[in-house]
Amino acid sequence: MDVDTRLLRSFAAVCEEGQLTAAAARLFVSQPTLTKQIRQLEGLLGVELFERSRRGMAPTRAGWALAARAGTLLADWEEALRATRAAAADQGSTLRVGFEGGIINLMSQRTVADFAHRMPGWQVELRQNNWFDPTSGLAAGEIDLALWHAPPSLSERYSVAVLGEEARCAALPAGHRLAARAVIDFEELLDEPFVAIPHEAGHWRDYWLAVRERGGRPVRIGAVAHNTDEWLTAVVCGQGVGFAPETMSRLAPREDVAYRPVRGLSPSQVGLYWPKDREPTPAMTAFVRSCRATIGLGGESARSTRTAPSI
């Protein structure tokens, strides 16, 4: 029987937290997604792993039996991944980098060429982030680095090499009532319908809807998009507005979309992220340096890191 290690990580988090809400926050997933994962694991094993009550989630006898072994299984798998990456680093291999739909506009052929110069024999494999996985594949070891626009608080959960800072702007259909404005106040957008990404995106959905800045005011959802193309199409068709990296307005302009600065909206921290329990490999370090040498963002802030002083 094959079981996804992601399901085991979710199971272990619920065991340790004793409730879905705290475990979901720790894993950066929505509570419905975590519930679905636990149900999926129970279905695969053919047993109930938790007793549900108002007080939370308590492992059943079968759940305790799995919990006693899950930690060792996950630790052994992580050690196997580290050993594999270390062996690959000695002979040249592929560095896998996840990216957001808009942020890839920051990179160029110069970035890849610089990396190839620093790491002969290595290649960069670029993978667009999956909006249904808040970790973009980092948790499962599917990618080595994630290139994200993110709130600074995310560095509490991940190691990050900061590349700089960038504003979030509003993306509006060209005929929108606010499209002619040079700058838009955040409060003017509160009653607008928004194009959202899926619930499964967890904290990313809230971030790109600017939930923190809303101060508890609910968001009107005009459409839900499952990838960048769907999101932009929904904006063009007037199904809602959205927030996007300012880079998109400069490097991917469109006549049917108006990108406007927003007063009162916090900027993003742009950086390369990886799990805190993984040491950066020489290839990861080289790619960070290549990005800093070729991506012009944030001036001196591109020289600093939050949790990776050695890079």
UniProtKB/TrEMBL annotation:
Instruction: Establish whether keyword DNA-binding is in the entry.
Output: yes
Residue span, HTH lysR-type domain: 3-60
Q: Does the keyword Transcription regulation apply?
A: yes
Among PROSITE patterns, the record links this protein to: HTH_LYSR
Per UniProt, the keywords (alphabetical) are:
DNA-binding, Transcription, Transcription regulation
Domain of life (superkingdom):
Bacteria
Q: Enumerate the Pfam families for this protein.
A: HTH_1, LysR_substrate
| Gene3D superfamilies, alphabetized | Periplasmic binding protein-like II, Winged helix-like DNA-binding domain superfamily/Winged helix DNA-binding domain
Q: What is this protein called?
A: LysR family transcriptional regulator
Organism lineage: Bacteria, Bacillati, Actinomycetota, Actinomycetes, Kitasatosporales
